[in-house]
Amino acid sequence: MDENYAEDYMLSVGYFRLKSYFHSFYYPNSSMFVPNTMFESVVELYRFDCELRNILFAAIQDVEVAIRTRIVHFFSLRYNPFWYAERQLFKDRNHFFSTLVQITAEISRTKEDFIIDHFNTYDEPNLPPAWKALEAVTIGSLSSLFRNCKDPAAKKDVAHSLSIPNYKFLESWLECLRVLRNACAHHSRIWNKRIQSPIVPNTLPSSWISIRPSRPEKIYSHLCYIAYIQQSLPIGKTLKVQLKTLLNQYPKISVHSMGFPPQWDTEPLWR
Length: 271
Description:
Elements: H1 3-13, H2 15-19, H3 39-78, H4 93-109, H5 113-121, H6 130-133, H7 139-148, H8 152-161, H9 167-185, H10 219-230, H11 238-249
């Protein structure tokens, strides 16, 4: 190993960030490296995780924008432009008010021109219509609104537009997207991380998986629902193609640690 290379890498990445990748090279239940472990192998795993996170973050953005747009569209059509601020549409009173406070704060902090122009033009009401307001809020606020809405009709419209037959699946996936997006945005380790488990249906109308993940908290389950939603979008098979290409570039990476089942790439979703 080139010690200068290792020193430079530690200075660029940081010891504690890189340390989380050491565990894959330890003996089970110990902090001792298995023989012949190379620093370059740790770096390769780190680089793989970085590239996986970049692919995933781009896919999450596509899916998030599509869900956000559909929520605004179907809810505004069914209710009114300010539905997100109307108490009677939501189940839990305290959750509604805490979400509305959060949304109001997010709108007040934004530097988006369309929000600034809105308040320069209109004095009332005190919040913009949904198609402006919900473009300026986090995916967490969006997930809270969707989950807390008491009328399933608009939720079904959103889910069905994405070939999801049960809006409960979308509720679960949207909340998992929130967790996963935050992990990606903060450069967290992704490849073998335990993440909030999504609902994994047995069947779905579009191409799906036939083998249920044995470890749904791993990244494979999340890749599945993201790839599934992408099928309903104009972007097509972006995640599928990029994921296969990445795994081919890093053949030494253990996909088992990511929750992938054997012969995962023969599943209808990934063909």
